[in-house]
Write a structure and sequence with these properties.
The complex is a heterodimer of chains A (321) and B (290). In chain A, α2 crosses α12, α7 crosses α8 and α7 runs antiparallel to α10. In chain A, β1 and β2 form a beta hairpin. In chain A, 75% of the residues lie in helices and 1% in strands. Chain A has a two-stranded antiparallel sheet. Chain A is built from 15 helices and two strands. Chain A has 321 residues and is mainly α. Chain A has a domain of 208 residues. Chain B is mainly alpha-helical. Chain B has one domain: ABC transporter involved in vitamin B12 uptake, BtuC, CATH 1.10.3470. Helix content of chain B is 74%, strand content 4%. The longest helix of chain B has 32 residues. Chain B starts with a helix and ends in a 13-residue tail after the last helix. Classes of the chains: A mainly alpha (321), B mainly alpha (290). At the A-B interface, α5, α12 and α14 of A face α4, α10 and α12 of B.
């Protein structure tokens, strides 16, 4: 048993060393690939937050662009207008997204497609607010010169390498949080709800409260990644911050990797986004998202639980061998 | 001022006609298959682009595009049905994501073929003013409002009198009972997608005749159609027409009294209000709460 633990620990350390040291070292010369990897991890983070809501809460959202955009705007404006340090502004962006999701709580009473489209309606409303509330958001012209990540102890986090390390840490922290929720007694109740919501209610679980909490957590995660993204690209406009891309890409990534797993959405985002940007975009400059759509349809039609579970089925882990 | 408001009411009424056609397709499919086809707006847009292709390529009016659009769009709609019926597990969630993916495919196909430019009909006959008492509109608006009314009448007749129409309503009401009565639910679903495609083809040609089209517009059309079905409550054609006119009027009034940038907000607010306050819609008795 101890030996197993140690083996797993060693494995984990090797993995961490690889993603924190080996990847930056390998990509250090290539700025374009590095910034694409950073963007892919941002999408991976949103995909994780989408999958959390779908897997634990049993809700499909087409409105994650709202959380992403609200997080981005709150953080950017807090750092510009209130002169808040960027590292404080980013979690504040997450809280802004939570506030936005509180407005969505009444929609939790709705079932399946009604919830999905009600969330979409909220997302549209937030985009219109960002466009029309000119005094604060700068309207459709957007917000420019958003301060970047700071320099701490001589290390410039606004560099490509710094951004990579920050976003990687954020993704890993949220993955830990997700794992923690899933294995807590909340997670057990949520899994029971997935099997039968009525039965779970009967034994005394407040399912609406639990779903609401998942919505808030998911909103916080997406908001933090929106905020981080705003401080790395230093510019925001409503059509970008609330773009449907922040819905499409995470959904494709989560479905591709397997939205019932934790690693699936993150790995899915890396594969899908890197393939999209480095391969499909150069092959067909216009309409390369076509490939994403085909991927999504193929995955749902052939293996709706994603590639990761499929891979595990084909190559079962050698147990006690 | 009163004149402006009345004019907005009139324009909204005309707009509601083709909105109703889009929403009816969505509602039919939802009725039989319990699936919201998120690619429905893109099907409508496909028809609009076919009309554009025929007008710009062959120099024929948009009306001549109707036969071509009918064939292509209903085939596309039936392919959606074919793919959606493959989904077995977690049907509700997976079919939503699936049709969303089909919508992404169609949007990007349109983008690939016709580029991102905004298009509208060049037909001067269709765009000529049509004056009715104190009200103004384009000829195309009145024409297609009439077409929608006729189509809705035909649909009502078909649903209540023909064998397939009745089968469709039977499957929508109780799938298992309908199967026991000898109705093939799979076939009925296919028919509902076919009819949805036919309606979408007319709606698309109408859209191109009086408005502007661009590749990203499909999603907004789906949302509008869904808003209308929510307003109407599912199960009545007159309900859908009233819901569609309500949405058209709300949008037109917002544009007249506030600004055109807020047009979408009107529909969304109406949607959320009805969904949260009157979850059975204005006319229906469908249960939506969890």
């Amino acid at each position: 048993m101890m030996l197993m633990m140690n083996k797993n620990m060693v494995k984990l350390m090797l993995w961490l060393a690889a993603v924190y040291l080996l990847v930056p070292w390998m990509l250090s010369g290539n700025h374009y690939v590095m910034s694409t990897v950073v963007a892919a991890l941002v999408i991976g983070g949103v995909a994780l937050s989408w999958a959390l809501l779908g897997n634990l809460g049993g809700m499909v959202s087409f409105g994650h662009a709202a959380f992403f955009g609200v997080g981005a705007y709150v953080s950017a404006l807090a750092s510009i207008k209130l002169n808040l340090p960027v590292l404080l502004a980013i979690p504040l962006g997450g809280l802004g997204a939570v506030l936005a999701s509180v407005a969505m709580l009444p929609a939790l009473r709705l079932r399946g497609p009604y919830f999905a489209l009600a969330i979409l309606a909220y997302a549209h409303i937030f985009r219109i607010i960002a466009t029309e509330w000119r005094q604060v958001t700068g309207g459709s012209g957007g917000v420019a010169q958003i301060p970047g990540l700071p320099t701490i102890m001589g290390f410039d986090f606004s560099s490509k390498l710094g951004a990579y390390l920050v976003v990687l840490t954020l993704v890993l922290l949220f993955a830990l949080l997700y794992r923690h929720i899933r294995s807590s007694h909340y997670g057990i109740a949520l899994r029971a709800m997935h099997a039968s919501e009525d039965a779970t209610r009967v034994v005394g679980v407040n399912s609406t409260l639990l779903k609401g909490m998942m919505l808030l957590v998911s909103a916080f995660m997406a908001g933090v990644f929106g905020a981080f993204n705003a401080h790395t690209i230093n510019f925001l406009e409503p059509d970008y911050a609330f773009s449907s891309l922040w819905v499409t890409l995470p959904i494709v990534a989560a479905i591709f990797g397997g939205y019932r797993t934790i690693a699936g959405p993150i790995l899915g985002a890396l594969v899908v986004y890197l393939a999209d940007q480095l391969l499909f975009k150069s092959l067909m400059p216009i309409g390369h998202q076509l490939v994403l759509g085909v991927l999504l349809v193929a995955m749902i039609a052939l293996s709706p639980t994603g590639l990761l579970p499929l891979a595990r089925k084909i190559m079962p882990r050698k147990k006690n061998a | 001022m009163t004149q402006l408001v009345l004019q907005a009411l009139y324009s909204g009424l005309l707009q509601g006609g083709s909105y109703a056609l889009i929403a009816l397709g969505l509602a039919l499919v939802f009725g039989t298959m319990k699936v919201i086809n998120l690619a429905h707006g893109e099907l409508v847009l496909l028809a609009a682009y076919i009309a554009y292709a025929i007008e710009s390529g062959l120099d024929l009016g948009p009306m001549f595009a109707i036969p071509v659009a009918l064939v292509i769009v209903s085939l596309a709609s039936m392919s959606v049905c074919f793919i959606v019926s493959r989904v077995r597990q977690d049907r509700e969630i997976n079919s939503l994501i699936l049709t969303y993916g089909i919508g992404v495919i169609l949007t990007n196909l349109i983008l690939l073929i016709w580029k991102a430019d905004v298009h509208s009909s060049g037909s001067s006959w269709l765009q000529e003013a049509f004056v009715l008492g104190p009200f103004y509109s384009m000829r195309s608006e009145v024409l297609f409002f009439m077409v929608s009314l006729v189509l809705m009448g035909a649909l009502w007749w078909w649903l209540s009198r023909s064998w397939y129409g009745r089968a469709l309503r039977a499957v929508a009401a109780n799938r298992d009972a309908a199967t026991l009565m000898g109705v093939d639910p799979g076939r009925t679903e296919l028919v509902s997608f076919l009819v949805a495609g036919l309606l979408a083809a007319f709606a698309g040609v109408a859209l191109f005749s009086y408005g502007v089209i661009q590749p990203a517009y499909g999603g907004a059309l789906t949302v509008k159609a869904f808003i209308i079905t929510v307003l109407a409550g599912i199960g009545s054609i007159p309900g859908v027409l009233v819901g569609a006119i309500l949405l058209g009027v709300a949008e037109a009034l917002t544009v007249t009294l506030a600004s055109s940038a807020l047009q979408e907000l009107a529909g969304m607010t109406l949607f959320l209000l009805v969904l949260l306050l009157m979850p059975n819609g204005l006319f229906g008795a469908q249960r939506r709460r969890g």
